[in-house]
Design brief:
The complex is a heterodimer. Chain A is built from no helices and ten strands. Helix content of chain A is 0%, strand content 48%. Chain A has a six-stranded mixed sheet, with no helix packed on it. A four-stranded antiparallel sheet of chain A has the order 1-3-8-7, with no helix packed on it. The model of chain A has no long low-confidence stretch (mean pLDDT 97). Chain B is an all-beta fold. Chain B contains no helices and eleven strands. In chain B, strands 2, 4, 5, 6, 9, 10 and 11 form a seven-stranded mixed sheet that branches. A four-stranded antiparallel sheet of chain B has the order 1-3-8-7, with no helix packed on it. In chain B, 36% of the residues are buried. The chains are: A mainly beta, B mainly beta. Chains A and B meet through β4 and β5 of A and β5, β9 and β10 of B.
Chain lengths: 107, 117
Amino acid sequence: DIQMTQSPSSLSASVGDRVTITCRASQSISIYLNWYQQKPGKAPKLLIYAASSLQSGVPSRFSGSGSGTDFTLTISSLQPEDFATYYCQQSSSTPHTFGQGTKLEIK
Amino acid sequence: QITLKESGPTLVKPTQTLTLTCTFSGFSLSTSGLGVGWIRQPPGKALEWLALIYWDDDKRYNPSLKSRLTITKDTSKNQVVLTMTNMDPVDTATYYCARNRWGYGYWGQGTLVTVSS
């Protein structure tokens, strides 16, 4: 299985901040990397697919980059509705493993 | 409009078999490139990928659970069924189904399954 490691596990930030979350794969996954946002009691929401493609309807303050083993999710200017848990997931090969999550909290 | 919804028991006893049904609308699982997968999330924990079935009936499983899982589809009914045998309290989780195509872009609301005697 490909292991996905996110950092940090938790993060405190303020509205308006620029935030970056990183995800590392245990082997190369090309660009087969997805990012999700999950709020308490809700299903995950796809934000970014194929490392850098913005899912329809997702605000442009979200962006993704990377290829191979190292990836980043950036939120350019945090909004109150962005405080949530974020997961990366590889879809290069099954099982489509997830990272352990990054909880983004209000400072 | 694409929707998915999970259905099945909310409580199962240890050693029993869990059967979950994902009923979807707004797309056909006969469309090339599409798949429907199952993902679960124990309370307070991370997401765990379980299984995926593609439009061409290719089936993939999490190796750690493969011996316990079976995924099938009924294209005419727009349903995907997941069975998990020999349930244990550690299998208590919210189970989600989701459509796969370049990521899992559409999810059901999830169904909480509790394993307890």
